[in-house]
Write a structure and sequence with these properties.
With about 230 residues, the chain is an alpha+beta fold. Helix 1 (about 5-20) runs antiparallel to helix 2 (about 30-50) and helix 2 runs antiparallel to helix 3. Strands 1, 2, 3, 4, 5 and 6 form a 6-stranded antiparallel β-sheet that branches. It has helices at about 5-20, 30-50, 55-80, 90-95, 100-105, 160-165, 185-195, 195-225; strands at about 110-115, 120, 130-145, 145-150, 155, 170-185. It folds into 2 domains: about 5-80; about 90-225, Sandwich (Jelly Rolls), CATH 2.60.120.
Length: about 230
């Protein structure tokens, strides 16, 4: 039986080591990079192995082409990500867990708004077509005409309506000029449907925001009869 030379066997060892390492990657970009490296090393290994390995080498070439195609789109998305200088830190903090390519895809479902004092973002009992993320400014939450809470940067507006499809539970009015990232309900649904990781992070973010508001509501209830509305 013929055996590979020890130097040639290293191609095989490195190929499978890279493949094993890719299984630990949570970042899809680097997972695909390691997959491509692994398959290229495996092609080199097959080349030195001798014998008729046409089938294996052909399929490896196909897998390399598929991953390179996906890497092209991931890299393109990463390069198109341009966060505003002043809003970047709060957005990156909120979107912890997403890479640049995923953030870029997510932002394609949104547009920036500047809301002046007195602007109404949601109206109680009215449908809500957008999910708002506050990057700066201050807003008041009103239920039945009474101010129940104040919202600042890092907060969402309209998350219950987004999650349930129900009308707004409160009216939210701008108290200080705001910089807002407004997510289209329809476009955001398409993005989260195409990427389960983005979907999970969005629901995690909304869950944290709701938990924070519920905590504030409980503290407010303990302190007095008024309750804090969730919007």
């Amino acid at each position: 039986m013929d055996y590979l030379a020890p130097s040639n066997e290293w191609f095989g060892h490195l190929a499978y080591a890279c493949l094993a390492a890719s299984y630990f990657m949570t970042n899809i970009f680097w997972l695909r990079v390691l997959a491509v490296v692994s398959m290229l090393l495996e092609l080199a290994y097959f080349n030195y192995a001798g014998g008729d390995l046409t089938t294996g080498m052909s399929w490896n070439a196909v897998f390399v082409a598929i991953n390179l195609y996906q890497l092209f789109w991931l890299l393109r998305d990463r390069l198109t990500l341009k966060l505003p200088e002043h809003d970047g830190p709060v957005l990156r903090s909120a979107l912890t867990g997403l890479d640049d390519a995923q953030i870029a895809r997510l932002l394609k479902a949104a547009h920036w708004k500047t809301a002046a004092k007195g602007k109404t973002l949601t109206t109680q009992h009215k449908p809500v077509d957008e999910l708002y993320f506050i990057c700066s400014g201050r807003l008041s939450v009103q239920v039945d005409g009474s101010v129940m809470a104040r919202l600042e940067k890092g907060s969402f507006v309209g998350e219950i309506a987004y999650l349930t499809g129900n009308p707004a539970t409160a009216t939210v009015v701008v108290d200080e000029p705001c910089r807002i990232l407004a997510f289209s309900r329809t476009r955001l649904a398409k993005v989260v449907a195409s990427d389960t990781h983005i979907n999970g992070i969005i629901y995690q973010m909304l869950g944290r925001d709701l938990a924070m508001k519920m905590g504030q509501a409980n503290r407010r209830h303990m302190a007095g009869p008024e309750s804090l509305a969730q919007v």
